[in-house]
Each structure stands twice: as structure tokens, then as C-alpha cells.
Amino acid sequence: MSVLEIKDLHVSVETEDGPKEILKGVTLTIADGETHAIMGPNGSGKSTLAYSVAGHPKYTVTGGSVTLDGEDVLQMSVDERARAGLFLAMQYPVEVPGVSVANFLRTAKTAIDGEAPKLRTWVKDVNAALGHLDLDPTFSQRSVNEGFSGGEKKRHEIAQLELLNPKVAILDETDSGLDIDALKIVSEGVNRFRGQEGKGVLLITHYTRILRYIQPDYVHVFVAGRVAESGGAELAEQLEAEGYEKYLAGAAV
Ligand SMILES: Nc1ncnc2c1ncn2[C@@H]1O[C@H](COP(=O)(O)OP(=O)(O)O)[C@@H](O)[C@H]1O
Ligand SMILES: [Mg+2]
């Protein structure tokens, strides 16, 4: 039974005018077997939430707590968070020139498992994962994210998800910039992941489109640094029809 618990999380970033509070008390519990979608307008703090849980140094936690299976995530280094079972697919994956996809994946897998994967099965696993995401085996010789199309970046993130197989996956706008075929392929990857025992998914998205392929158990409306409303999948339909306006009107943006 694994569970990610975010309680009253406050996060600031350093700006030229001093610290600016972005997250203003986020509370969210993702138990295993659950998929939660976070939907919100641009600039509401969705990526800040993802980065803060993953441990990006740019973000300062000023209050609240994050625990995974009762362990204090905020005390962990980024590496320790990954080893504990947290995975983040970034909205804008970074280029790592000179590091091949194959090396990157192997290094990540070794760091997370504490030992290098067995070479024979590993190569098979990598090729299988790339194949599931409709990426050619030669893809593994390319530099990480360098010159990747938007769709290739996102598919590569989901290949990582498959190979690293964390407990909780935080997917930040994994649907953005995908054409309909790539969206299906990526969604199938996420569905394979969450079809396993004991997995949690936090799916951050701007659009309801991906929720047709990945049905969430819970939908949270995220506005001005906090959860403004929570509900079931039907809340996404309502957002599609009505937009975020009614929430923005009530929030101090
Ligand atoms: N370094 C920074 N300096 C100033 N503002 C920042 C910084 N980083 C993020 N922000 C602000 O934090 C808010 C939330 O950003 P973000 O988490 O990326 O939102 P979302 O992912 O929901 O679009 C935005 O208003 C953004 O301008
Ligand atoms: Mg974002």
C-alpha cells in the first residue's frame, strides 16, 4: 500500500523582487491504484507542484509536508526521491547533449535499483519499451532530447516510465504538443503503467483531451496555487464546457 500525501504545501520562488509564493496550501492524497488529474489555467502553479515534489532546487518549501508511504519526501535528495519511487515527466524535458538515450536510461536504472541491470535482458527491455512507444531502436543512440520533436520527447518520457517503473508517476502536460496518434501511444503507455498493482498517477494537464484515453479517478481544479475544487471524472466534462472562469473570479490571482 503506497500513498503520496501532500499536506498544506506552500512553495516560493526567488524573484528580483524577493520571494514570491506560488503554492498557497496544496493538499492532495494519491493512494496506489488511483489516477488523479490536475487541471488548471496557465500559471496556476501546476509545474511548480510537480517540481517541488520531485525536489527541484529552484523551489523553496516554506510550509506543509510531502510524504511517500509515511517517509518525509522533503528531507530527501532528488536521487533519494527517485529511489523511493517518485517519477517526474517534465513539461519541458531538458536536452543532454553528448549523453545517449541508452546511457541515460542505464544510468538512471542503475541509480534507482542500486545495481546495474543485467545487460542481456536490459537491451531487450529497452528495445521493447522504445517499441511500445513507437520509437525505433536506433533512437537509443541519439543524445537525450537533442533535436527530438515534441512528440519524441514525450514518448521518451513514457519509455523511461516503463523502464524505471516507479510507485508514483507525476506527468506534467505529457499530452501537450502530441498529435492524435502520439497521444494514443503515450496514453497506452500510461495505462500499461497504472494497470500494474500498486501504482499511483498524478496527471497534470491543460486540456481534457487526454482524459478520454486515461480515465482519472479524481479530477482537481487547480487555481492560483491551490486546489479550488475536487470531484470525479465528470468534473473534467464540466471544465471542458465552462472553462476556468468561475474559479478565477473567486481566486486572488
Ligand atoms: N523564477 C520565477 N520567477 C518568477 N515567477 C515564477 C518563477 N517560476 C515560476 N514563476 C511563476 O509561478 C507561476 C506558476 O508557474 P507554473 O508552476 O509553471 O504554472 P503552470 O505549470 O500551472 O502553468 C507563474 O505565474 C510563473 O510566472
Ligand atoms: Mg506547467
Automatic annotation (TrEMBL):
InterPro entries: AAA+_ATPase, ABC_transporter-like_ATP-bd, FeS-cluster_ATPase_SufC, P-loop_NTPase. PROSITE patterns: ABC_TRANSPORTER_2. The lineage of its organism: Bacteria, Bacillati, Actinomycetota, Actinomycetes, Propionibacteriales. Keywords: ATP-binding, Nucleotide-binding. Belongs to the ABC transporter superfamily. Ycf16 family. The keyword Glycoprotein does not apply. It comes from the Bacteria. Residues 4-249 form the ABC transporter domain. Pfam families: ABC_tran (PF00005). SMART domains: AAA (SM00382). This is Fe-S cluster assembly ATP-binding protein. It comes from Nocardioides soli. NCBIfam families: sufC. GO terms for molecular function: ATP binding; ATP hydrolysis activity.
